[in-house]
Amino acid sequence: MNTATALKTNTADTVKMTIRQWATEDRPSEKLQMYGVQALSDAELLSIVIGSGTNRYTAVDIAQSILDKFDRNLNSLGKARFDEIKEVEGVGTYTSCRIMAAVELGRRRQLATAELRPDMGTATRIYEYMRPRMMDLQTEQFYILLMNQNFRLIKAECISTGGITEVSVDVRIIMREAVLNNATVMAICHNHPSGSIHPSKVDDTLTQSVKRACETLRIHLNDHVIVTDGCYYSYSEAGKI
Q: What predicted TM-score, i.e. pTM, was given to this entire model?
């Protein structure tokens, strides 16, 4: 008996467990958080879009019935009309809208041009990227530039804002961000509002601390660039990293 038939033969007084009564690791939302989105079946993913079930059917039951209607083919579901989805028992107007919206987002993602990630492989490129963000600052800011193995930027994030002459940085926060963003290469960068390009002893100590942490996690620390309004200092170019 397929799912669609099972739904039709269910009686109104059938005692049915809700998804909240399932084991935690079996609930689609919790399963996604624990194991990642790839671990979910098509029906489980669709049930998250559906949101909630009815008195008779769980969201997973409804998702299974929708997939059965379209021969368990996501491409067929993607071509379905609004009224065809709404015909499935347990699917209302709002649920049908959400399913069609999710399908359309997937379609638009396929059509979208991949975002070009800038190359951060040299100190000059780091400086050119960061200077517009730092040139008018009156206090020091500390950034991390997270990259993939081809030195393409994944994310640039301000980790700390300090005073006129120094900024306090927690190396643990830097490494956490690198790991969370799957970075294999990283550069660090901060500005000197005074205009001096010479690194301080604090700058030297911080650079070495970050370098040691990167080596532990097998992340390549590409550079530490100090930015001023008209020029920069590169630890890499100075042979200090």
A: 0.59
